[in-house]
Each structure stands twice: as C-alpha cells, then as structure tokens.
Amino acid sequence: MGDTLLLRPGDRVPLDGTVLTGESRLDTSAVTGEPVPLSVKPGSTIMSGCINQSGVLTFRVDKGLEDSLVTRI
Fold first, then answer.
1. Across the beta sheet with 51-52, what order do the strands follow?
2. Considering the entire predicted model, what is its pTM?
3. Please, are residues 65 and 9 in contact by the beta-carbon 8 Å criterion?
4. Cα distance between residue 15 and residue 42, in whole Å
5. Most buried pick, 17, 31, 55, 71, via CB within 10 A?
6. With contact defined as beta carbons under 8 Å apart, do 50 and 28 qualify?
7. Across the strands, what pairs with 8?
8. Alpha-carbon gap, residue 16 to 26, rounded angstroms
9. Would you call 42 helix, strand, or coil by DSSP?
10. Closest Cα to residue 26, out of 58, 55, 1?
11. b or e along 52-71 (b: 16 or more beta carbons within 10 Å of the residue's beta carbon)?
C-alpha cells in the first residue's frame, strides 16, 4: 500500500487506489456491469479490474491484494 503505479491506455487496474495525476475513462463493465465508461481525474477512486481506456494515469495503491475489490468478488 502507498506505492505509486503508472497506468497506460489498455492496462487493467491491478489494485484499488486513488488517481494522483492524469485524466482518463475507465471501462468498469467487468466489475460493475455498467456499460458507460467512468471519467476519472486526480482524487478519483479507482477499482481493481477496470480497464483504462484513454489517458495515462498515475495512482496511489490504497488497498492490498487481499482487500481489493476483485479479490472480494
């Protein structure tokens, strides 16, 4: 937890976290079933399992693998 990761377009979010820099849209359909992409910017919370669609993001990991959304599902 607390690590900073880079997320490029096409990458899957590996762990839950908070966006530090960049703006993008995330495909959350695999996790939430929602077909409309979610816009994210600095301060937004992102969930593991979502796919980054457009921009480059850096984010801080807030939860370890055992506590992440994908593991709980």
1. 38-40, 24-27, 51-52
2. 0.84
3. no
4. 16
5. 17
6. yes
7. none
8. 13
9. coil
10. 55
11. beebebebebebeeeebbbe
Q: How many residues does the chain have?
A: 73
Tracing tokens 């899957």 back to the chain, one arrives at: 12
As given in the structure block, the two tokens for residue 20 are 């530090």
Q: Which two tokens stand for residue 68?
A: 């992440």
Write the pLDDT tens digit of every residue in 11-56.
999 999 999 999 999 999 988 888 899 999 999 999 898 999 999 9
Are 64 and 5 in contact by the 8 Å Cβ rule? The answer is no
Whole-Å CA distances, 54 to 23, 43, 58, 67, 73: 8, 18, 13, 27, 26
- Residue 15 CA to residue 45 CA, distance in Å, equals 11
**Per-residue CA distances from 34 to 38, 41, 50 (Å):** 9, 19, 11
Which residue has 């997320």 as its token pair? Answer: 7
